[in-house]
Amino acid sequence: MNKHKIAVVGYGNIGAYAVQAVKAAPDMQLMGIVRRSGGGDIDGIPVVDDIAKLGKVDTALLCTPTLNVEEAALKYLAMGISTVDSFDIHGKIPQLRESLDAAAKKNGVTAVLAAGWDPGSDSVIRALLEAMAPKGVTYTNFGPGMSMGHTVAVKGKDGVNGALSMTIPLGTGIHRRIVYVEAAPGADFAKITEDIKSDPYFVKDETHVFKADDVNALTDKGHGVSLTRKGVSGQTDNQLFEFSMKINNPALTSQIMVSCARAGLRQKPGAYTMIEIPAVDFLPGGRDSWIAKLV
Amino acid sequence: MNKHKIAVVGYGNIGAYAVQAVKAAPDMQLMGIVRRSGGGDIDGIPVVDDIAKLGKVDTALLCTPTLNVEEAALKYLAMGISTVDSFDIHGKIPQLRESLDAAAKKNGVTAVLAAGWDPGSDSVIRALLEAMAPKGVTYTNFGPGMSMGHTVAVKGKDGVNGALSMTIPLGTGIHRRIVYVEAAPGADFAKITEDIKSDPYFVKDETHVFKADDVNALTDKGHGVSLTRKGVSGQTDNQLFEFSMKINNPALTSQIMVSCARAGLRQKPGAYTMIEIPAVDFLPGGRDSWIAKLV
Prior knowledge:
The structure is a homodimer.
Chain A: E1 4-9, H1 13-24, E2 28-34, E3 41-42, E4 45-48, E5 59-62, H2 69-78, E6 82-85, H3 93-107, E7 110-112, H4 121-132, E8 135-142, E9 145-146, H5 148-155, E10 160-169, E11 175-183, H6 189-197, E12 206-211, E13 222-233, E14 236-248, H7 249-264, E15 270-272, H8 287-294
Parallel strand pairs in A: 1-2, 1-5, 2-4, 5-6, 6-7, 7-15, 11-12
Antiparallel strand pairs in A: 3-4, 8-13, 9-10, 10-11, 13-14
C-alpha cells in the first residue's frame, strides 16, 4: 500500500498528540516534524526547520497557533502540499475557507480547515441534526474542561504569572467560567479579578476568580461537550437529540486532523470544512467494507 | 427558485408523514402520491396509480415495504427519476447499492438508499465516531419503542390477531423484547408464546410475551436510540462518546428521506448511502450560509 506521507508542523500540545495519531494510522507514514528550531530527532522522527528537507510530503498537519494558520497554510499550499488545520475562530472560518480555496485550487491540492471537534466533528453533528429536524434550536454546551482561549486571555493580564480558565456548562448554551490565577508577588488580586471579569472573553458569563499556588497542579486535558437539539421533523414537534462526549482534548483534535488528512487527499482540489466531506472519506481503506460494517 | 418535484410512492405510515415533510420543505414541490388504488386526491394532493400521470418528477420517495424497495427503485430509475428509500435490512445493503448504482448511472440519476435513522443517520454517527476514535467498540442500543420487524413477525404466527413488539435497551447492544399479543378466540397462548420465543427474530433475546385485549391501545410511534463508543484517539484511551434521541419514528424516517432527496439531486449519477454524502448537502440553500452558521 502506498502510504500517505505526513508532516507535523509545530510541536506544542496538539503537535505531540498528532505525532501519536499519525503513527497509529494504518495508511500513513510520518515523514517528520517541522519546527523553527529544526535539527536532530524526537524519538527517531526527524525534526527540520524547512519541510523541503523531508522530501515528498502529501499533507502538512498545521499544529500551530490559530492566528498563524492562514499564513502557514498558504505557504504549504503554494508548495503543492495539502494542509489540515484546526483553526477555531468560528466567525472567521468563511473568509479563511475562501483564501485557502483559491490557493489550493491554484496548486492542485486540498486544504481541510477548522478540523477539530468544535469547529469540526460537532459541526457535522449540528448539520446532521438540521437535516433530521429542520426547525428547532441546537445548544452546544462545552465542558467541564479547560478553555485554551480563555486561559490565554487571563495569562495576558498584568500581575498574572499563571492561569487556568475552566468552562462549566450550565445548559442551553450558557457557561460559567472558573478561573484560577497564580498572581505575581505583590500584585493586586482585586484588580486582576476586575480585569478578567471585564474582558470581552468573560464579560457576558458568570465568572469566578480564585487564587491558586500552582495552576499546573490543577490542569488536566479532559474536556467535554453536550450538544442538544429539540425540533420538528416534517410537521412533528418534540423530536429530541443529544450528542455528548468526555474526551482528552488534544488527543481528539489531533486524531480528527489525521482523519481529515486522509479525507482531504480524496477530494478534488479546493478547501473544505468537515460538513463538506462524506463521512466515509475520513476512514482508512475502501468504501465497501465500511458500508457493510457501519450502514 | 426552481423547486425539486417530489412524488411520494406508497401511503402507509411513512408515506403519510413523508407528505407532511415534503410540504414543510422550502425547496420542494409535492407533485402527488402514487398508490395502487390511484384516483382522486388526499387533502388536495393528486393520487395516481402511475407516476407518469404526475408530469415531470425529479425524485420518488419510496415509502413502500422494505422487501419491495429494489423492484420499485429499479422501475423509477429506469424512467429517469431519482429515488430515495429507507431499506432497512442491514446485511443486504451492499447488494442493493450495487444494483441501484448500475441502474442510476445508466439513467443519469441518483438513488439514496437506506436513508432512515438506522440504517441512515445513525450510520453517519458511527462513521464519524470511527474517525474520532479509530480503535474501540460502538454499541447501538434501540428503544424503548415499537419494532416494526418484530411486530410483523409475531403477527404472522398462528392464533395471533394483533401484536406489538417493544424493544427495550439493556445497554451494550443487548435488548429485551416485550411482546403484547391479541390471541384469536380459543388459541393456545402457551403455544403462541413458544412460537414467538423460538422465532429467529427473538431466539437470542430475553423475550416476554403478554396477553392484551387491544394492542392498538398500547401503540405509540415514539422510539429512541442510544449509540455509545468508548475508544482510542491516536494513542489516548478512554475517549467516551454518546448519541441519543427520543423521536417519533415515521416522522424522523420520512424527514431524513426528504433531506436525502435534496442531497441526491446534488450528487453525480449513482447510488449512495448517507455516509457517502457530505452533511451540508442534506440542507436546503447554499453551502456558504450553512458553513457560517454551523461550522
